[in-house]
Amino acid sequence: MRRNAQIFVALLGGLLLLSTPVAPTALASAEGLGPLCTPGDITNLTPPTISPSGSFVWASNTKTLTTTAGTWSSSCPVTYSYKWIREQTGAQVSSTSSYTVTEADATSRYTFHSEVMACDQAECSAWVPSSNSATLRISHPAKAVTFPCMTNAFDATYPWDDTNRITVLNAMKDAGVGWIRLNFVHWDKAETPHDNDYQDGTGQYLDLLKHCVNLITSTPYNMKVLLVIEQTPSWAGATLHSPPNDCTSNSSSCATFKDFLYHLLTVTLPSYQSKIAIQVWNEQNAQAHWTGSDDQYYFLLRSAYSKVKAINSSILVMTGGVSRLVGGPPPYPMATFVEDLYDDYDTYGCTAQNPCSTKPWSVVALHPYPNYDTDAATNECPTVGAVFADVSGAVLTSMKNHGDGGKPIWLTEFSWSAGDDYDGYDRLGDRVCFQADQVSRLSTAYKYNYLPSNVTEGFWWPTDRKDLADIGCVNISSPWACGSELLDTNLSHDVGTPTHDLYTAFFNVPPPT
């Protein structure tokens, strides 16, 4: 019995020896088996790699980055630990071999790399960073422009003819433009002087509109057209900017506006329905364009949506471009108006006279212009991030809160002015954005955008402005740098020449990925 006890103690001692951390080489040598693992034996042969890598577009919350472990040398089996690093902050965002990126990552254009640590029975290596990285971005809007095919943006009387129109369209085609916004389709000019006085076929307003639409959508241009409809005829309402008399309450029929849209789509432009979109009014949060309430604008928008969709359900019907320049008086901020529009839908919904099965707009249209007084310090040109903050912030939050976070957003006007006290917005009395600033802002806005991924179209305003003296831009020595026009006063567009830097920057923006 004593001998057996001695054997048990010896075995127990062996068990205790095995459970005590010791160098594997010492254990192996003691047992006469030769070395199993050598401290410091782990060697990285090739670093980890991640996929996808480089700069790529965030598409959805399911986009995932993955990493390999790399290749390693060790005399024992190894296990791996992983981490993902956000390079701008140094923060670790994941401890697995993958990381699912977010829209916030893309909006901030964060860059990520992986790091891997290998461990064998003896020790662990240092963290080895991946040989490549991934920079997230959102898909930038497609290039689009506003074009005074019928008149210029201020309804001046410059005699636009096809020579000028084709010159501009050639420049836009060369730059890869897909949409042209016509400035503007004025209801008061199309149906005048009385109800149902359209005068198609007499060489007047609607014939010119049809001619412009045909020119833009036909070969060789093959672009699409955004029609911005505004201005109430005198027989239909009190002023150009007031609601139609039959469209002021939830129970209103809004028949006059719907009749105009029916005529426009079925008589004037029946063969172009697949090539157009409709924007209902312009900057309706500013009394310079709309003197009614937000409720009354909702009734007008709802009536337009129901009528257009009944004619052709594929035509996009969007809100009027809500201006970031606060609107009013009193001030009516862009995000506040968007929120009120959703509240109007929650309150009024749809009616038998103006039916809809969902919120009565296909796209939220915005005009995120710089506010030269508040977006930057004195004498500084506002950055893209400052100007677009409301879009990716309060506006998108409002849309998400109302279950509409994935709905398309179009920037149907935006640009940076290089003018002197341009249009009254630069109340500093001097130029705060110069040619280099415009080039930088345009390139950044279209390439990276600081915007959510559902911003799909961006309309630079405007293509040109030949009659600069009409808006007082006579003190600028450059022939083009009055405001934000892409082309000079002669409509020339020589890529790469110093006097055409803005058009060159626009030309060089790649198409969305």
Short overview:
Helices cover 28% and strands 19% of the residues. The protein is α/β, with parallel strands linked by helices.
What does this structure look like?
The relative contact order is 0.10. The N terminus is likely disordered. An 8-stranded parallel β-barrel has the order 12-13-14-15-16-17-18-19. Helix 11 runs parallel beside helix 12. It has 513 residues and is an alpha/beta fold. It contains 12 helices and 19 strands. It has 2 domains: 96 residues, Immunoglobulins (Immunoglobulin-like), CATH 2.60.40; 367 residues, Glycosidases (TIM Barrel), CATH 3.20.20.80.
Q: What topology emerges from the helices and strands here?
A:
Elements: H1 2-19, H2 24-30, E1 43-46, E2 50-51, E3 54-58, E4 64-67, E5 71-73, E6 79-86, E7 91-94, E8 98-100, H3 103-107, E9 111-119, E10 128-129, E11 134-138, E12 142-147, H4 162-174, E13 179-186, H5 187-190, H6 205-217, E14 224-230, H7 255-268, E15 276-282, H8 294-311, E16 317-323, H9 334-348, E17 364-367, H10 384-401, E18 409-414, H11 435-447, E19 455-460, H12 501-508
Parallel strand pairs: 3-11, 12-13, 12-19, 13-14, 14-15, 15-16, 16-17, 17-18, 18-19
Antiparallel strand pairs: 1-5, 2-4, 4-8, 6-7, 6-9, 9-10, 9-11
Helix pairs in contact: 7-8, 9-10, 11-12
Strand content: 15-25%
Q: Which runs of at least 5 residues are low in confidence (pLDDT < 50)?
A: 1-34, 152-158, 421-429, 467-481
Determine the fraction of residues in helical runs and give it as a percent range.
25-40%
Number of structurally distinct domains: 2
Q: Which structural class fits the helix and strand makeup?
A: alpha/beta
CATH topology (fold) name of the largest domain:
TIM Barrel
What general form does the structure show?
A: elongated
Please state how the strands of the largest beta sheet are arranged side by side: 12-13-14-15-16-17-18-19
Radius of gyration over all CA atoms, rounded: 32 Å
Distance between the termini: 83 Å
Largest sheet: 8 strands, parallel, barrel
Q: Provide mean pLDDT, rounded.
A: 83
CATH superfamily (homologous) name of the largest domain: Glycosidases
Number of β-strand runs: 19
What's the tally of helices? 12
